[in-house]
Design goal:
The chain is an alpha+beta fold. It contains 15 helices and 23 strands. It folds into three domains: about 140 residues, Trefoil (Trefoil (Acidic Fibroblast Growth Factor, subunit A)); about 260 residues, 3-Layer(aba) Sandwich (Rossmann fold), CATH 3.40.50; about 90 residues, no CATH class. Helix 2 crosses helix 3.
Length: about 525
Amino acid sequence: MTKPLKIFILFCCTVSVTTSANAQEDNNLAAAPGAEYVLRNAATGSYLMKDGTTTKNEAEASSWRVVTNDTIRYSDAEKLYVIYCDDAVMQLTNSGGGWKVAFTGKGNTTYVMPSTTTEKAFKFRYRFALDTRYLNVEVDGEGKEKLTAAHTPSNYNDWVFVPVLHPKEYNYRITKMERSSGYSNYNIAYRSTNPKGEEIWLSGYLAVPTKDEGGECTADHFLFSTHYTMCKRTQWPTSDTPIDSYSNYLSSNRPIMVEPDYLGYGITEHLDHPYCAAEPMAEESVGMLFAAHELLGDLHRMDCYTEPLPTYGIGSSQGASIILACQKYVETSPKLTEEQRNTIHWVRTNACAGLYDPLATLSHYYYVDKVDVPAVMPLLLLGQLAGFPEIFGETKAEDYFSEAFLKAGVLDMIRSHDYDSEDISNTIINSCGNTMHQMLSEDALDPNSDISQKLQKSLGMCNLTRDWTPKADIKLYYFTKDEVVPHLNLVSVTKGLKDKCLGKFETEETTLGVRHIVACGNFFINILSGGYKE
């Protein structure tokens, strides 16, 4: 539950800064999931095709999608975009040999600017040195059209975004795209449901190894990673390159890397994160795998439905409990069809120092009356309330904490996402101490109180050590003297699942571990080199 040892690796990639956008009836582009448009030239009325030609038939025109960091409005300055259709990205290029119009897999960015010559239209502007050009339609004397790079602004380089009448119902949208030779990296938003059963969009990071820039996917498996506790927004997978993703660069396995931000992080940072709420977290995280399958089919010519790839799950600390919960969800949830289970094809889980039995862990904290990383307590309580609204009802997180704890503003620190778990823990220790009696209210300390009973019920529902028969292989890493996640978690899950597991069930002590953080770091050293397949 604390940040594992950071491994710094230098590598190079080509970056295109980008977020999804949607055209409304007034032709402003505004963020919206799965938006598609045809692009109509204002002068000719023709529509843009992804092979670099034009057509007069709107029904056969290519459907384009947009990725950008901002929305476009007529009064705004030009913005940087990627405009793409399937695996074709719009670009005007000049590498010194003259201007070329191209639609390829390369992650090229386009300056989109409001037109001053045609109402509700936009120009696509490119620049090489001091030379500025616009994507233009040129018509010859016989009425034939071709795309050119025009010097002069005119209505022949004005384009209108026309919403597709019957768009595909995408389960993902791209919010950032980075394409370099051999890799395509994405931040995506994907459809999910929150713990109340309401539709919501979540975010995550996806890395795809390819034959060339933006080309066919070359991977033969998925590496699905659920991250450790990341309270600060700069740590989230979509904010910074995840440490686990370096397996793409160090390992000969070269997997498709999938890592969700989680509800309450990324694009949903305004919501409380359901920390260690096993089934809600598993359902939300597994949803990103389905979104990745769809994106791979759309952009990288990979059919994950007829030829499923094996999925390997990894996670440490909080991520360890979530990844094991994901395996359980994939194997047992009635919300999934057999076809969906087969498509995911879960083969192995590798987890380190996870909270597999949270109720027993809480009891341990009460018994020793100490939490070495006290940030765990507010995270756990906020998370349970967020993950199980049907249990807690009108109960508030503030009901569980002492007056001294509340005066320190810890809950506000967590919700601000400006502080990491170490900052939060230090604030708790300095303001009230890290014993349970110092942190919690009288009602929370009373096991028979209403709020304690609710907490015990929700934590009992998060127990991953019982009530299922694992089918895939499981390997659990641990550190006997772990000061954050008690060793009893490993004992409990081994006792509950080892004899029932239909695959291999293995455990291994991280012998280099001297603390929780070092044990997790040691785990990642093993994982980054491809050890998750052993």
